[in-house]
Amino acid sequence: MTMHDDQVDVTTDTVASLVGEQFPQWSGEVIRPLPSTGTVHAIFRIGSGLSARFPLRLADADETLAVLEREARASAELARVSRFPVPEPVALGKPGAGYPMPWAVQTWLPGTVATDADPSGSDAFAEDLAAFIAALRGAGTQGRLFSGDNRGGVIADHDAWMAKCFEESEGLLDVPRLRRLWGRFRELPRTSADVMSHGDLIPGNVLVTGDRLSGVLDTGGFGPADPALDLVSAWHLLQPGPRDVLRRALACDDLEWERGKAWAFEQAMGLVWYYVESNPAMSRLGRRTLDRILESTE
Prior knowledge:
- This protein is an alpha+beta fold.
- The protein has 2 domains: about 100 residues, Phosphorylase Kinase, domain 1 (2-Layer Sandwich), CATH 3.30.200; about 190 residues, Aminoglycoside 3'-phosphotransferase, Chain: A, domain 2 (Alpha-Beta Complex), CATH 3.90.1200.
- Helices cover about 40% and strands about 15% of the residues.
- Strands 1-2-3-5-4 form a 5-stranded antiparallel beta sheet, sandwiched between helices. Strands 6-8-9 form a 3-stranded antiparallel beta sheet, covered by helices on one side. Strands 7-10 form a two-stranded antiparallel sheet.
- A hairpin with a 7-residue loop joins strand 1 and strand 2.
- The mean pLDDT is about 95.
């Protein structure tokens, strides 16, 4: 079952053909699909040192290229400030071999995604995560401001999406209780300026070795946003004790902490119903995050 109505099929044979045609220097490398709960790209390894990312949802080729170029610039910028390993852009591929859009090649990072190696009970991991977030915040926005309609701007701007989520979640979740919570979250005021943010610190984008942070993936969204946005990691990734460690390390006041909870809530609500059949692991992540948020409000 596909995750999206407009999803494009990407096979190993397609990737091998594209690599052979466009990057013959890698044509002898083994191409392997990477099992993933990711929802935006199909990912394939090229040999031992590279990975290729193929957008899953059909879009205009020129628009896709502009997005991939923007993501490559953001990833390179993040790599310059991160205290932890992150993938670095290597090349952009063109449509071909039946695949209709541009695609990206980047360096491969070793490690286990936090979906598979749960670090949620580790204070050391929480300290690492706080160090990563602090380094991004310290990079400075160079005058840039949040733009776009994704998470990271005005919480109440997501009312229409949340209304759909509540409608679709009937029978799956305690919708009346969740509506009341959103009613409080959407009113939280914004008091601090944008900082540089990863934007999507969920388990599938975090690498773990032992109980420590060993790398961060999906860095193409690096940009200015609400300082609370990267605090979604507190709810997606951590149990209560380590969550407090993260909060103390980042010196979050009550308002910023609640806004981080609100962004995590908005994201989790969409994960539960949208992926309930097509990507159960992502749906379960959404449920777990909501449970953690609800427990913290009792």
